[in-house]
Design a protein that fits this description.
α1 packs parallel to α2 and α2 runs parallel beside α3. The N and C termini lie far apart (42 Å). The chain has five helices and ten strands, in the order βββαβαβαβββαβαβ. Helix content is 30%, strand content 33%. The strands form two sheets. An eight-stranded mixed sheet has the order 3-9-8-7-4-5-6-10, sandwiched between helices.
């Protein structure tokens, strides 16, 4: 059965059709194991992790990203412009940057926010869903997380979107 995924970059829309979503794992919160699933996927990374996040306040997730960077994984993070504010509670970006992780700000023209919650790991896994990479998402909120493995079309689409956003991002 074919599935379609529509991605939008700027004013351009691109429909991606794939004959297989690969292996799919789904998690729900609160306390449904989503945070643990993200950490496990990050711990298994060998080459590269691309992250798009409005914010992240989950110590286990940003510790896993920093540990991946320390073991030689290329970790690159895009965060919303609000992450620059000293009052911003999603302080994982500051922490990650201090630990050597590349962090850039995804500036959306106008008043929009960069509200993605995505990781692309080793060109083979996509993590997405409503799940913010935060403690509250794991312990309090009703959220979902989907982990796609072995779906090259999805990986290409999410990687292309990350690259497009990164091309206009500003240094953190």
């Amino acid at each position: 059965m074919a599935a379609a995924l529509a991605t939008t970059v700027g004013a351009h829309a691109q429909a991606i059709t794939t004959s297989s979503a690969g292996t799919v794992s789904v998690y729900f919160s609160p306390n449904g194991g989503a945070e643990r699933a993200v950490v496990n996927e990050v711990r298994s990374a060998k080459q590269r992790i691309l992250v798009q996040a409005y914010s992240f306040t989950s110590p286990p997730i940003f510790e896993a990203l920093a540990a991946a960077r320390a073991r030689g994984v290329d970790v690159r993070v895009l965060v919303d412009k609000e992450a620059r504010s000293q009052d911003f509670r999603g302080a994982g970006a500051r922490y990650d940057q201090q630990r050597g992780v590349q962090v850039a700000v995804d500036e959306i023209a106008g008043k929009g926010i960069a509200h993605n919650k995505v990781m692309v790991i080793d060109g083979g896994t996509v993590i997405t869903g409503s799940f913010n990479f935060s403690r509250q998402a794991e312990t309090t909120n009703a959220e979902n997380l989907i982990v796609f493995r072995d779906s090259p079309d999805l990986v290409r689409a999410y990687t292309q979107n990350w690259q497009t956003r990164a091309a206009t991002a500003q240094p953190y």
